[in-house]
Amino acid sequence: MDISNHLAREIRNLQCESRRAAYHTATTTAQYDSWLAASHLNLPLCMTLLAVGASILALRCSPQNVTFETVFTPCGAQPKAGNQTISVDGWEPIQRKGPQLQEQYMGTSKS
What we know:
Layout: H1 2-30, H2 34-40, E1 47-52, E2 55-60, E3 69-73, E4 76-80, E5 84-86, E6 93-95, H3 99-106
Antiparallel strand pairs: 1-2, 3-4, 5-6
Helix pairs in contact: 1-2
């Protein structure tokens, strides 16, 4: 009986450590890629995690079909739908930024 209790405590401790490690991994990953963090936890495809300090917010999105057109910019071909493009991670539409923002980062200006 004593061995069974010891094994049960050990299993609970391992499960607790596993949950703690998953939480830590999700928190750290969510700071850089909210979609990847959600996939590590096997959340549904339309869930994303947002790291806020040591806490995580689970956000649910709504899937939408969007038709993008190709626009040629100084940086090459870019997807465009209205005033949106596809984010770097490829999962969500984001607001397009004008070329003046890119020029500021490159250290040039048109003034």
